[in-house]
Specification:
Rossmann fold, two-stranded antiparallel ribbon, alpha/beta, globular, 2 domains, about 45% helix
């Protein structure tokens, strides 16, 4: 079972997106940068990070004392170096602080996960947060927004503020992280009878979903199919916990 603690969302600014999601993966340095090559990540940022996008980020944080915080994590057993290279470039260009203390504490398989699987694999974060400071999150890719929201929640639960987010590439319809009341009501009308099961497995209810996540669930046609996937995720979580206990013993 996932025991992460999530919170009902407040209104958040739109995520700034540099380009469509396919453009990043098409770069010749992408695969190496995604799997731990620092130099490849630097080359990728040099080729893909437009000055106009830096200007857009600068406009979003104008007048603020901010920390540029990359999503530092491991995907499929490899360190993704792109967010770090992105944050280095932005912080040095704009002359603002960079955050390196907060890291993803769970190994993600999200690059290959489908939409429904991502709902059950939101990552956890750990590290030192500077309470009272303003953070601006950067990542390489935005799909449904679950990773970004998890990092936002971690930072804000430790007394800091998240004033914005930017990604190199992403799905434009996922730029809105905040869940609209209309979408939440529609989701609960369709699947409200199993929200408690969903919350028991994930640690959060429908009100903590991103707009994109909620719309994805709403497109699932079968109540039983959704219930079966929740049950599978519950079993997978119990299995992982048992494996962890066996290793520690």
């Amino acid at each position: 079972m996932n025991n992460h603690s999530y919170f009902q969302q407040k209104e958040r600014p739109l995520v700034l997106i540099g380009s469509r999601i396919g453009g990043l993966a098409g770069n010749s340095h992408f695969r190496a940068a995604k799997t731990g090559d620092d130099l490849a990540a630097v080359f990728l940022i040099q080729e893909l990070l437009a000055q106009s996008f830096i200007d857009e980020i600068q406009g979003a944080i104008k007048g603020m004392d901010v920390i540029i915080q990359p999503v530092l994590g491991t995907e499929k057993g490899c360190d993704n170096k792109i967010p770090l290279a992105l944050s280095v470039k932005i912080s040095s260009t704009l002359g603002v602080d960079q955050g390196l203390e907060i890291v993803q504490s769970t190994v993600s398989q999200r690059s290959s996960a489908n939409g429904i699987d991502r709902l059950f694999t939101r990552p956890s974060f750990d590290g030192d947060v500077e309470a009272g400071r303003n953070y601006f999150i950067v990542d390489d890719t935005l799909s449904q927004g679950g990773t970004v929201v998890s990092l936002i929640n971690f930072i804000e639960s430790h007394g800091a503020n998240v004033v914005g987010c930017a990604v190199l590439s992403g799905k434009q319809y996922s730029a809105q992280l905040s869940l609209s009341i209309h979408t939440l009501e529609a989701l609960r009308e369709k699947y409200g009878t199993i929200e408690s099961e969903f919350k028991s497995t994930t640690g959060y209810g429908f009100d903590a979903l991103t707009e994109s996540e909620a719309r994805y669930i709403s497109k699932i046609n079968s109540l039983e199919a959704f219930r079966d996937r929740i049950a599978e995720a519950e079993d997978e979580g119990i299995s992982e916990a048992n494996e962890g206990n066996a290793i520690r013993s």
